[in-house]
Amino acid sequence: MNFFKRLLSLSMATLMIASLFTFALPVSAASSEGLTFTENDLYRPEKTVDATPNTFEAWIKLPKQAAASRNGTIIGNYNFGQCVINLEIHSSGRPRLYLINERGNTFDWTFNGVNVCTGNWVHLAVVRSAKEKKVHCYINGELKKSIDVDNGAALTEFIPKGGFALGGDFRGGNDQYFRGAIKEVAIYSGVRTAAEISADMKAITDKNGLLLHYDLSNQEAGKDVKDLSDGGRDLKYIYNETWIDEKDMPKLNDYAYSFAVVGDTQKLNYNFPDKFNLVYDYILDNVENEKIKFVFGLGDITDKSDKAEWDRAKAAFDSLNGKVDYSIVRGNHDSTATFNANLPWSKYKDKFDGALGNNMLNTYKTLEIGEVKYLLITLDYGASDNVLNWAGELCEKYPEHKVIITTHAYLFRDGTTLDQTDLCPPATSGGYNNGDHIWDKLVSKHENIQLVISGHDPYDEIVVSQVKGEKGNTVTQMLIDPQTTDLTNGGLGLVAMLYFSEDGKNVDVRYYSTVKRKFYQTINQFSLALDVVENDATTGNGDDNTPETSKSNTDSGCSSTLSICAIPTLVLMLGTALVVTSKREN
Fold first, then answer.
1. Is 291:256 a contact under the CB 8 Å cutoff?
2. How far, in Å, are 379, 476, 500 from residue 447 at the CA level?
3. Is 491 strand, coil or helix?
4. What number of other Cβ atoms are within 10 A of residue 285's Cβ?
5. pTM of the predicted model as reported, rounded to 2 decimal places
6. N or C terminus of the chain with fewer C-beta within 10 Å?
């Protein structure tokens, strides 16, 4: 846990955020009767739990008429990690404990016949007992219902390392925010008895096995929430509006040039073909007025790698010719054969300074913008050691250039590099090296590598992490993958725009829907500095502070079996999914 203590002790001034956009908008309400929520209110964890949660307790209040519909999440981590556990109130006022374990098995314990929509304060306790092979539901200290659990996998110990959000979870748009008021929440690792639960109703005083405790009876709305347990699991408040008009966006800082980043287009291309070209139309329309100097692709251009998809993609790439330079990355959904057949080196070689072999799988290009020199390297999906050695030699050949690497699979939504225990690791799904291997063998070793951008893990938020390389340099890593966001929203055509200062050290990031012509989520509009990491952070890859946590259970476009997700550090949610650490943690 030393890593988390160091992380939480960081001064905000030393975080890499140059500035966070401020939106003066309404927030959730609070009074002496607890805290209420809206879809725009995110109460995100700074730290994960370190033991299996088995007892969930909460004081909640829902009106009687709320029983007609689903009432949202009291506390949970759905959509952050594969190991999921949510305490919810479903339709008819039924308490529900929803679990996805480390193997991807799903368990749904909904207490039919129990209704907490009474219009009064209700003390709810749900207890998972492996010894009894039951899940219990207590209302106001009285056991109301028990569900027998025959599947042993449902009762095994596991740690949901995504941490717990309050009054919602990590789903896009926070659509399962809690529809009532919450006055208090506590989670224990132990199995609380009826007598202990009755005592907890009066006051939470027993800290044995207490993982977190939030007293919201006088919580100020729109403010961080203090954890009253000894776990230090405070919550950060973030206002996160889903759609923002351009007139409501804060003015960009002065910028000298910009890069456009097109994440995984597979669902847009296959499911919403009529919207696919809007991404490239937007880029073309804004090359001059937004000073776009380069367009980065991140792979999974196609979903099925069929002819119609490739025809659309080629037409889109060709539309950029003579207007703005671009790179192309292969993802695991783009078969090597169709990628090479549709994008022959002979056609595109004039756009690059070179490649490894006579194909487009691994390419490089130098670019000078003012006094800033860039070396832009694309790596194939799960690049081999030979490819990584080639890229390393390029970094050494151009020591005065800032290196930007784009590849399909490198970073996960928790801000750590993808490893073999994650969903769809390249090493066993059509590639060679995973993200952690690419860090160890390439990225960590060269001080001129400034930025690595990847896709592959579908997430509504742009994830940013900064780590120190072996030479003490800062490496900024970004995950940009709108595939599921497109799929669930009818195709949004998202483009991430990176606006750089003249010296290339500061960046404003904006995430824009070319379909809706609006900016997507407040949390995705932010600023950061590219060369700042806490001064006393140490380098190296020691194992003294490498805790485990869980990763995504959502579709990353890979058909491989879900595996246990051992990941390291919790993403610190401060205006964007952001974590600052001293080394690669897996």
1. yes
2. 18, 12, 20
3. coil
4. 11
5. 0.85
6. N
Give the CA distances from residue 39 to residues 43, 468, 555, in Å, rounded to whole numbers and listed in that order: 11, 36, 23
The CATH code for residues 26-240 is: 2.60.120.200
Place of tokens 């390392």: 161
The residue to which tokens 């799960």 are assigned? 382
Fold (topology level) of 246-580: Purple Acid Phosphatase; chain A, domain 2 (3.60.21)
Q: How confident is the model at residue 244 (pLDDT cuts 50, 70, 90)?
A: very high
Local confidence band at 160 (pLDDT 50, 70, 90 cut-offs): confident
Contacts of residue 527, defined as CB under 8 A and 6 or more positions apart, other chains included, come to 17, 18, 19, 20, 21, 253, 506, 507, 508, 509
Q: Rg for the chain (alpha carbons), in Å?
A: 24
DSSP secondary-structure letter at 254? P
Residue with tokens 């003490």: 472
Between 194-208, 318-332, 554-568, the lowest mean confidence (pLDDT) is in 554-568
pLDDT over 50 (residue 561): no
SS3 of residue 408 by DSSP: strand
Tell me how far apart the alpha carbons of residues 331 and 4 are, in angstroms, rounded to a whole number: 33
Contact assessment for residue 145 and residue 109, using Cβ atoms and an 8 Å cutoff: no
Q: In 368-411, which residue ranges form alpha helices assigned H by DSSP?
A: 385-397
Contact (Cβ atoms closer than 8 angstroms) between residue 136 and residue 146: yes
> How many other C-beta atoms are found inside a 10 Å radius of the C-beta of residue 365?
18
Query: Residue 263's closest CA among 300, 313, 219, 209?
Result: 300
SS3 507: strand
How far apart (Å, rounded) are the C-alpha atoms in residues 254 and 136?
Answer: 58
**List of E strands, 383-500:** 402-409, 449-455, 463-468, 474-479, 494-500
> Which runs of E-coded beta strand occur in 530-576?
572-573
Domain residue ranges of the chain, discontinuous segments joined by +: 26-240, 246-580
Buried/exposed 415-439: b ≥16 CB within 10 Å, e otherwise: bbbbbebbbbbbbebbbbbbbbbbb
For residue 68, give the DSSP letter. Answer: G
- State the burial class of residue 221 (Cβ atoms within 10 Å of its Cβ: 0-12, 13-18, 19+): middle
Q: Phi and psi of 585, rounded to 5°? A: -115, 130
